[in-house]
Specification:
Translation Initiation Factor IF3; TusA-like_sf; 27% helix; 2 helices; 86 residues; five-stranded mixed beta sheet; alpha+beta
């Protein structure tokens, strides 16, 4: 979507945040996969997105690659998922 900005930042707790609100499939999964490649094994990524169908893609990717989905929150149409890299 026009005007959407991707945000990828290291957080104070040592984890990482990927904000891809405003993007649809397959972009959310692609950006999540790219972000996870930058992390070391065991590090955590919080992904914030607002496209409900992207959750299925992220779940499938995590299952295939062995990443752990630690938390899934739905906050009124905005999703916040926490993933631990395999």
């Amino acid at each position: 979507m026009a005007g959407a900005n991707i945000r990828f930042d290291k957080q104070a707790d040592g984890g990482y945040l990927l904000d891809v609100k405003g993007y649809g499939c397959p972009h959310v999964q692609i950006y999540t996969e790219k972000a996870l490649k930058k992390l070391a094994s065991g590090e955590e990524l919080s992904v914030v997105f607002d496209n409900p169908s992207s959750g299925e893609s992220i779940s499938f990717m995590c299952m295939l690659d062995g990443h752990s989905l630690l938390e899934r929150k739905d906050e009124g149409g905005t999703f916040a998922w926490r993933i631990r890299k395999a």
